[in-house]
Amino acid sequence: MLNAPGTVDAGYRGEILINLINHDPVQPAKISRGDRIAQLVVQRVERADFLLVDELPDSSRGVGGHGSTGGHAGLVEQVVKADLVDERLSQ
């Protein structure tokens, strides 16, 4: 049984529903009154004011993407280089 997370906007006024998916093709899922099948997390939402700039200041991370701060940067670089090679070969 999979419950799919969702977000309820602050302006929503309807009943809060839960999406459940039974991935077992053989066994039907049985849910009884009182079963704990979901949880609600209430979280404050920050409203950001964005400032348009021509250029961002330098940072220690730079342009490092996914995994660049967790010790997997070499692997990420290899994947990016492989993608570039594939792109050049397909042209």
UniProtKB/TrEMBL annotation:
Among its keywords, does the record have Transmembrane? no
**All copies of domain dUTPase-like, residue ranges:** 3-70
EC number of the protein = 3.6.1.23
Which Gene Ontology BP terms does the record give? dUMP biosynthetic process; dUTP catabolic process
| Signal peptide from the UniProt entry | none
Q: What is the lineage of its organism?
A: Bacteria, Bacillati, Actinomycetota, Actinomycetes, Micromonosporales
The record's Pfam families line, in alphabetical order, gives:
dUTPase (PF00692)
GO MF term (any one): magnesium ion binding
**Catalysed reaction, written as an equation:** dUTP + H2O = dUMP + diphosphate + H(+)
For this UniProt record, the keywords arranged alphabetically read as follows: Hydrolase, Nucleotide metabolism
InterPro entries hit by this protein: dUTPase (IPR008181), dUTPase-like (IPR029054), dUTPase-like_sf (IPR036157), dUTPase_trimeric (IPR033704)
The protein here is known as dUTP diphosphatase
Q: Per its UniProt entry, what is the enzyme's top EC class, as one word? A: hydrolase
Q: What does the similarity note say? A: Belongs to the dUTPase family.
Keyword match Flavoprotein: no
